[in-house]
Amino acid sequence: MATETTTTFTPEQSTTINRLSTGLTFAAPLFLLAGLLRVVLGGIDIWKGNWGGLLAIPAGGLLAFAGLALLAGASDAKYLHDVKGREKEHLVNTFDSINTAFTALLIFGCYEAFLGFIHLLM
């Protein structure tokens, strides 16, 4: 029977991973809440007859998606800290989740800049 090699983190690395998990756990619901609020407010604008609310819905979706990706990264960072022997998988998953969230935030920023530019032209 093959034994799995378990690596242990140094105290500095363990503290950093714990802080990463805590930070992502704090930031993820904020992005998710901001995205849902933006979608709801866009829907209210549409209901009132302002079709400009349609522009808020994709932005809210991007923010909510970034929040969900960060939430996945937070759980992987927690598993990275707690579960020994699976460090590589959880580290890759944490990195992928953070990368996906920041890609969504980059698209969100470009979308908002485009809307701001169109607003300046009108």
Condensed summary:
The protein is 81% helix and 0% strand. It contains three helices and no strands.
What percentage of amino acids are in beta strands? under 5%
Overall geometry comes to elongated
Measured as a percent range, the helix fraction is over 70%
Total domain count: 1
Seen as an oligomer or otherwise, the chain set is single chain
Mean pLDDT equals 89
State the secondary-structure class. Answer: mainly alpha
Distance between the termini: 71 Å
- Unreliable parts: none
Task: List how many beta strands DSSP finds.
Answer: 0
- What is the helix tally? 3
Order of helices and strands: HHH
Give the biggest beta sheet: none
Q: What's the gyration radius in Å?
A: 19 Å
Provide an overview of this structure.
With 122 residues, the protein is mostly helical. The protein has one domain. It is built from 3 helices and no strands. Helix 1 packs antiparallel against helix 2 and helix 2 runs antiparallel to helix 3. The model has no long low-confidence stretch (mean pLDDT 89).
Q: Which terms would index this structure?
A:
single chain, 122 residues, mainly alpha
